[in-house]
Amino acid sequence: MFNKILTKINYNIKKFLNYNKALVGQGTLLLKRKKYENIKKLQETELKIFSQNGEDGIIDFILNKIQLNIKVNFVEIGVGDYEESNTRFLTETRLIRGLIVDSSSEINFVKSRNFYWKNNLYVSKSIVSSENINQILNKYNFSNNYDLLSLDIDGIDYWVLEKITLEKVKVVILEYNPMFGSNLKLTIPNINNFKRLDYHKSYYGMSLRAAIQIMENKGFSFIGNNSICCNAFFINKKLKHLFNGIILDKIEDSTQLNFFENKSNSYQKNTKDFIIREMQDLDLLDLEKRNIIKIKNLDL
């Protein structure tokens, strides 16, 4: 009985805080929108409301540029409990039709939130793979008929992305791994039931060059990344002209290691060289040469 009361109290507190967070975010964005015409880099638009690293502001800027200002249809794959994610602010402030997917049972807490029943939002607790991603999208009628895709599953992202049809999608947000450097098109292999903690916390995903290449093949242009260098933003080439004024950083600057998956009190351990040595016997696929290479044999 006590636990139920405590849970209800925590829920009501979060509900109040999130409502106010959304209001403050909306007010801040109204001010930022006045400067959108003068934006030269995506990082200038960053604002963290419900996102992890300022993606809320970047997404608002992109949607504003493509004049998608009222209703947004989206798919976000990899959301945890949805308390901190790329599309959460959209569900709080716009008319949406959305699908959120995650393997964690905590995703089911979303069904108790006000924004769940106020919106056309669907929740799928699923372990995503390259084999089942289209089954999941089809089940909820989200196969190539939405505006925005966000993909961040800390694992076989490249292989899942490879299977998704994106012709009608306008905006894509992809997590990339700056640890994999700026020179090569790399991804972890398509490992069944991949869990990065079985290998190393920094062993996941794809390099930025790999992300740019696969999105080029799917008809999208890279328009920039967030300042922490982990999320890349892509626009359908049919809309690329709307972003001709955006300046891209050098890819070396977009792959700086600005965060640590395993933060240590030791400075020596918080270096790329140290982390690479810890992962040296793990495999990566070079997408150009189509061969598997040990990390220790790569110049990262």
Topology of helices and strands:
Layout: H1 2-33, H2 55-65, E1 71-77, H3 88-93, E2 95-102, H4 114-118, E3 120-125, H5 133-139, E4 148-151, H6 157-163, E5 171-175, E6 186-187, H7 208-217, E7 220-225, E8 231-236, H8 272-278, E9 283-286, E10 291-294
* Strand numbers in spatial order across the main sheet: 3-2-1-4-5-8-7
Please state the structural category. alpha/beta
CATH level-two architecture: 3-Layer(aba) Sandwich
What is the average per-residue confidence, as pLDDT, rounded to a whole number? 91
What is the tally of beta strands? 10
Number of domains: 1
Number of helices: 8
Radius of gyration, whole Å = 19 Å
Per CATH, what is the topology? Rossmann fold
The arrangement of helices and strands along the chain is HHEHEHEHEHEEHEEHEE
**End-to-end C-alpha gap:** 55 Å
The biggest sheet, with number of strands, parallel, antiparallel or mixed sense and barrel status, is:
7 strands, mixed
Please supply descriptive tags for the structure shown above.
Rossmann fold; 10 strands; alpha/beta; three-stranded antiparallel beta sheet; globular; seven-stranded mixed beta sheet; 300 residues; 28% helix
Question: Briefly, what is this?
Answer:
The protein has 300 residues and is of the alpha/beta class.
Could you explain how this protein is built, in words?
With 300 residues, this protein is α/β, with parallel strands linked by helices. It has a single domain (2-262), classed as Vaccinia Virus protein VP39 (Rossmann fold, 3-Layer(aba) Sandwich). Helices cover 28% and strands 17% of the residues. It contains eight helices and ten strands. The chain has a seven-stranded mixed sheet with strand order 3-2-1-4-5-8-7, with helices on both faces. A three-stranded antiparallel sheet has the order 6-9-10. A hairpin with a 5-residue loop joins β7 (220-225) and β8. The N and C termini lie far apart (55 Å). The mean pLDDT is 91.
